[in-house]
Every structure is written in C-alpha cells, then in structure tokens.
Design brief:
alpha/beta, metal ion binding, Dimethylsulfoxide Reductase, domain 2, Barwin-like endoglucanases, 6-stranded mixed sheet, 27 strands, molybdopterin cofactor binding
C-alpha cells in the first residue's frame, strides 16, 4: 500500500468473506522515501500504538532509524492490515523537535539540566511534601499509551511506595465508562467478546462508535463482511452522518445527552415483543423485574420526543436487535463522553443479556477502548483501579496485593475510593495537592474547560513534572520536564480492546538522553529509597522482563490472568488473549461462555454504584442482591442534561476523534501525510443550520459557549440539525500566535467541568453553544479524502 492509498483509501481494498469464514489476510506496508525493501536491515516485532485496535506490525530499521512498517499477516487482530496512523505515525520518532535532555525551570524559564539535577529536584520536593503534608500531597496522571510493565511499576510506586490515593490515567477521559459499565453488569472489568465475532455476527450494532475513524482496521473487517455473501445488518447510533452511518442498514441520530432514553426505549420494545431469552435471563442474571418496570415507562413515542428520533425508526431498530440470531454490540465515546454515560453503556450490556447473546461466536458486547493500552492501565491499577482487578472495598484483596508487594497493608490507601482525575484537579486548585507528575499525556489540550486547566497547571503552588517525548502545551507549564523514549525505542507488552496481548520490541535507541518510562519510574523509586518489608528495594524488579514476570504473579488467579504468557511466547505468537494460564496456554477468545461471571461477592472487582447518583453499594447490599455472582441487569431513569441549548446558545456542541489524528496530535501532527490530510480544525454544521446562520462551505465561523470561543472553517452536512461538531485534536504547539495562552483553536476551550457520577468520566458531548459567521472562505487544502466513502457492496 503506497502513500496515496493510505490516505485516500484509508480502509484499503476489499477482501470479501462470508459468515464463519476466516478473514483473508492483506498485508499493508509503507517505507520512508528512498528506502527500498532490500535496504531494511531488520524487521522488529511490535503492534500499533496510535489507536485501540492492537494491530500487529513489524518495524523496519535502516541506518539505525525507524524506516517504515508492515502488517503481520499471521496476527489475529488485523491479518496484516494497517490504518493511516499505523502507516505514517512512526515518523514522529525522528521529528527534529524531540526532547533529548531534561529541563528544569530556572528564573521562570525552562533550561537544560542533567538527569541527576532533574531527578534530585523531583525527589527533594517529594520528600518535603511527604514530611509536610503526607502522601496525599502527591499525585500522578498517566496515559493509555505506555506499556503494562510501566503502569504496573507506577501503580506499585504510587500505592505501595508513597501510599498516595491520587493516581489516575487519561483513560479517565477515554474508557473509564467502559470499565464502569462492565463492572456494573458483570462484577468485573474485562471485555466479554472478541474482534473475531465480526466474522460470525448477523447484526452489528454500533452505539456512539465511529469505528471507521477510531478503529479503521476493525472497520475494514466489517466492510469485508458487508462485501461478502450473507452480510450482517448494521445499526448505527450517532448524531453525525459518519462513514459508519452511511454503510448502515439503519441509522438513528439522537440528540446529544439522550442515549439512556433511547436505550430504555429499545429495551422496552425488546421486552414488549417477547424477544427475551427467558431461560438465559433466569439462569444467568438478577434484576430483570426492576429493569422491566423501568423501561415500561419508555414507549417509542415518549422516547421519540426526548431524542428527536422518529418512533417508527426506534421500533425498526428494536426489531433488528430483537430478531438477530447473532448480535454483536460495540460502544465508544459517543456514549462514554455524554450525559448519563455509564447508565447508557450498561443498557447495551442489558440488551445482550436479555437476548442471551453472550459467550458464543458472533454474539456479545465490546465496551471499546480509545487508546492502545487503556486496558493495561485498568488491569495494572494505574487509573484508579486496584491492581489485578482487585476490589478496593475488599480487605482480603488489599491484603493479597500487600503480600505480593511485600509491604504493609496500611501502606496501600484503601480508606476510600481512589481519587479520580477531576477531583485531583480540584485538590490542586485548592492547594492540597502540591505535586503532580504527568506522563505521556497532554491535559492542557485534552481536558475540559481549558482556561481553568491552564490556571491550575500554572499555579505557583503546584510542582509539575511532565514526562514526554515532546515539549507539549502541558510541558510548557512544568517545573521539570523529563525526555521519554517512544514506542519502538523500548520494550514492553500492551493489550488491546479485546484482551489481545502483544510484545513490542525495541527497534532503535532513543535520541539523546531520552529514557524509557520504566527506567524513569524505577530511577525515582531507587532515589526515594522505597523498601519492602524485607528491607530490599521496592519495587523488586529492575527491567521490563522482570517487571512483566512480577505483573504475571500479580495477575494470577484474577480475571486478567497473564500467568501462561512470557516474552518468549509472545515472540512466537502474534497476539494472545487473556486470560492465558497454564491450563489455557493459547489464551481465551470469549469470556462467560459457561454463563458464569466474575461477580461472586468475595471475588468481584466492584460492588457497584447507583447508576443515577453514583452512590456506592455496600458489600452487604451486594451480597444480598447477588449472592451467586450472576450478571446484573441494572435500570436507570433518564434525567435532563445539566447544560442544554437555550436562547443565547441554541446548539448542542459535541467533539470527538477523526481518522488521521490521535489525541492532541503530539505524534500524528508531526507525520507529514497525516498533517496534510487534516491540517486544521473545522466545524461541522448541518445544511439547515448553515443556511440559517448565513454560512457557506469554508466560511470562517465562531462557535462559542459560556467558557470561550473557537474559530474554525465550516464543513456543511454530515450532522443532524441543532448539533455542531469540532474535532478535539487541535492545540497550540504548532501555531505561532497568542492563542497558546488564551485559546481559539482547541475544542476543549468550550467544554465544561462535569462528569459521569459512576465512571467519573468528563463529559465532552453536551455543551450548549452559539454560532456566527466571522469571515469568508479562504484558500485551504482539498477536502479530507476520508470524507469520500468506499463503495460498499451489499
């Protein structure tokens, strides 16, 4: 696949196949200009790092540099295919503005320093705050893009070394709701299904999941099914006319913030028409009566009024779901980042449970991830979960982890729930959190209400450490900046959204003095002189492979069991799904095939929460409600979003991902092909709304909320009336003007500080906005090629 194909045909050529057949292989590759296949000195095993797909690939090395990539035909995830970010994103590794030496703030300016100076400054401030205030003064905010070994080490340092409750990942913005929904329904995190279920399904329902742009290779798999014999029907739930919507059998476009009402309406019809697997529900679940009573109040006519969707189309969608023989449901940010996020995602779980669509080929649910290692963040305990899917409220689980780490139980904070990111920001704002270490993420662009975020990061009371490969918008505020190695410059494992574990080998050396994140964390632990109960250094491991072996021991016996894996095995097999144990050495394709769940009261990861208020359930309540550890059908009433359109701000504003960029473009914005494909922020407006505002294609418009304003060129069409869309990727590192301080480009200038009561995930898709024209069209690049869909043979 050449450059043009990778951009203009992002889903590649079709390789049609039928239900139950293996997905044909198709190997995609791209080498740097001037590099021929014969110039490649070696190919190094890895997987994709710029989306959640987990596509297996090999890294080409020539002249000591990364020179390209190729897909692996034997990989269970992608069968050789690569998406545009895979094909071109690796070029960021060689960007001339990589951080190559530590920086410390002197006289208000960041200046080069030695590693000793930088680390001594961090350690000195850590010890001062521990002495003055205790571990609650220190916090850590990490990523969904590091390796399992690094997350596990960070969790051990924060919980078992320092004893702080303040550790979270940017998975809080991404898939916290996926984890919460799985815990609420199944008692534990962990995807029930597999990507291979696409091969068997006769109905695929995507709820708030623009798979074509967020997981392009998986969408290729769906397109190949659609092009083959006996294709599945596709249901798309999304307010935008995405490539998924255009390929769908049926598209529902609800108003933002109304997903729960829509799901309640669909479940109403499922129950009303008797499309319930009664035997499965009685044998494997609890809570049916309460759910049935709740959704009885949501007939299609009522739901139509709430969601702005025709009642007949709601009935049509329910029939499609209710009569499927093999129903696969997927969920992503359209639900996770919107109002009543966890409650809505749980209703998708309810749908597959009511239909008995779990644990068999083609049937199930994937509460998707948005990042390549979001699953590892959750498993390892670097995002507010307790390591190994253990239960914070279960003293036996805490004691088990303390024994594994050889530290006192009291060292691991479990007096209350871990501090989620939004609360950490509040503590920093009020001055009780005085130290924040940010690794591999860019909150100065990715968090809601950026003016507030900038003021917190810039506070003189906060000691800010930023560990990254580039001088990001966040690093500009730091007291210390640590240069980190990127993917391809270090070794480790990472796990994708369907539990597939890959090994990523080191291909090249990092530039200058940049170091792997694992080495940095371990260096901090040694300088802090953390010790276990035996007086030996803690953590007890010293490199990636010993960290992996330690993680295996921590995962053993838990749902995310890695005990049957090793680096040697992952060098031979291209992707293995956990749980992988000595008894199941080839991994596990689907969970819950026997109707048994990880929900037993003494084993479950969570006792659950009220879906409307977020109030936690007490252990004794859980024991009484679910003594046998069954799956749980949980109901929730729809309530109106906290911010809705009005006279001054008559539109719903949502933001989201696009095909060619990842997060804040720290890497993809440095890949020439990706940058050229989507060089600048834009605003999506419906035809009717554009006409009412006097806007033509390409006009410069201002979209504003009570928090701020963004200026963007208009793209007309592709969205329902009354809703505006901005991509959230665009910050200020690559623009040379004052916007870096006050902002007129980043979508999160406009979002507000609010979060889901269950998952604590911030809301990015329910702001109220105003729109006005401020300028005529200007010369700009050709339309983004991905806007032109491939022909789908149905």
């Amino acid at each position: 696949m050449g450059k043009r194909d990778g951009i203009t045909r992002p889903w590649g050529t079709r390789t049609p196949y039928g239900p139950g057949e293996p997905w044909p292989a198709r190997v995609d590759s791209h080498l740097a200009d001037g590099v021929a296949p014969g110039d490649v000195e070696r190919w190094v095993r890895s997987a994709a790092v710029l989306h959640a797909g987990g596509d297996g690939l090999d890294i080409a090395v020539a002249g000591g540099r990364i020179a390209g990539v190729r897909g692996r035909a034997d990989d269970r995830v992608n069968r050789g295919r690569l998406d545009p970010k895979d094909l071109f994103g690796w070029q960021a590794n060689s960007s001339p503005d990589r951080l190559t030496t530590p920086l410390v703030r002197r006289d208000g300016e960041l200046a080069e320093a030695s590693w000793d100076e930088a680390m001594d400054l961090i350690v000195r401030r850590s010890k001062e705050l521990l002495e003055e205030q205790g571990p609650g003064a220190l916090g850590f905010y990490t990523s969904g893009q590091l390796f399992a070994e690094e997350y596990y080490t960070l969790a051990a340092i924060a919980r078992g070394g320092l004893g702080t409750n303040h550790l979270d990942g940017n998975t809080r913005l991404c898939t916290a709701t996926a984890a919460a929904a799985l815990k609420e329904s199944f008692g534990c995190d962990g995807q029930p299904s597999s990507y291979t279920d696409v091969d068997h399904a006769d109905v695929i329902a995507l709820f708030g999941h623009n798979m074509a742009e967020t997981q392009a290779v998986l969408w290729s798999r769906v397109l190949d099914r659609l092009a083959g014999p006996n294709p599945p029907a596709v249901l798309c739930v999304d307010p935008r006319d995405t490539p998924v919507a255009r390929a769908a059998t049926l598209h529902l476009a609800p108003l933002p913030g109304t997903n729960l009402a829509l799901m309640n309406g669909l479940l109403h019809e499922i129950i009303e028409h008797g499309w319930v697997d009664r035997g499965y529900v009685e044998r494997c679940t609890v809570g049916y009566d309460d759910l049935a009573a709740m959704v009885a109040d949501y007939p299609p006519e009522r739901v139509a009024g709430i969601c702005g969707v025709d009642a007949a189309r709601i009935r049509e969608a329910a029939r499609l779901l209710g009569t499927a023989e093999r129903l696969l449901c997927t969920v992503l940010q359209g639900f996770y980042q919107s109002h009543q996020a966890s409650a809505a995602a749980v209703q998708v779980n309810n749908l597959v449970l009511l239909r008995g669509m779990l644990g068999k080929p083609g049937a199930g649910v994937l509460q998707m991830n948005g990042q390549p290692t979001a699953e590892n963040t959750r498993e390892c305990g670097a995002d507010g979960d307790l390591t190994g899917f253990r239960n914070w409220a279960n003293d036996d689980h805490v004691a088990e982890l303390a024994k594994l780490w050889n530290v006192d139980e009291s060292k691991i904070p479990h007096y209350g729930p871990p501090t989620h990111l939004m609360q950490m920001l509040r503590y920093a704002e009020t001055g009780t959190l005085r130290f924040l270490w940010v690794s591999a993420t860019n909150p100065a662009v990715s968090l809601p209400e950026l003016r507030r975020v900038r003021s917190i990061l810039d506070s003189s009371r906060l000691f800010l450490v930023v560990q990254d490969a580039f001088l990001t918008e966040t690093a500009e505020f730091a007291d210390v900046v640590l240069p980190a190695a990127l993917w391809g410059e270090k070794i480790g494992t990472f796990t994708n959204a369907d539990r597939t574990v890959h090994l990523s080998e080191k291909a090249v050396e990092p530039p200058g003095q940049a170091r792997p994140d694992l080495d940095i964390f371990l260096d901090y632990a040694r300088r802090m002189d953390f010790r276990g109960n035996d007086g030996e250094p803690f953590p007890q491991w010293h490199d990636a492979e010993t960290a992996f072996e330690a993680w295996k021991r921590a995962s053993a016996g838990r749902p995310c069991d890695y005990s049957g894996l090793s680096y040697a095995k992952l060098r031979e097999v291209s992707g293995v799904q956990w749980p992988c144990t000595p008894d199941s050495p080839d991994g596990t394709e689907r969970l819950y095939t026997d109707g048994k769940f990880f929900a037993q009261p003494d084993y479950c990861e969570s006792y659950g929460r009220d879906l409307v208020t977020g109030a936690p359930m007490e252990p004794v309540e859980y024991q009484a409600m679910n003594p046998d550890g069954k799956a749980m059908l949980k109901a929730a009433e729809y309530v109106v979003p906290h911010e809705t359109p009005g006279e001054d701000h008559p539109f719903f504003l949502i933001n989201g991902r696009t095909l060619y960029h990842f997060h804040t473009r720290t890497k993809t914005g440095r890949a020439p092909e990706l940058r050229a494909a989507a060089p600048e922020v834009w605003l999506e407006v419906s035809e009717r709304d554009a006409a009412a505002a006097g806007l033509a294609e390409g006009d410069l418009a201002e979209v504003s909320t009570p928090r701020g304003a963004v200026h963007a060129r208009v793209r007309i069409g592709g969205i329902r009336d009354g809703v505006l869309f901005l991509p959230f990727h665009y910050g200020y590192w690559d623009v040379d003007h004052a916007a870096g301080k006050d902002g007129d480009r980043a979508a999160n200038e406009l979002t507000f500080t609010d979060w889901d009561p269950v998952s604590k995930q911030p809301l990015f898709k329910t702001a109220a906005a105003a729109l006005r024209r401020i300028g005529p069209p200007a010369p700009r690049p050709e339309p983004v090629p991905a806007a032109v869909d491939e022909e789908v043979v149905r």
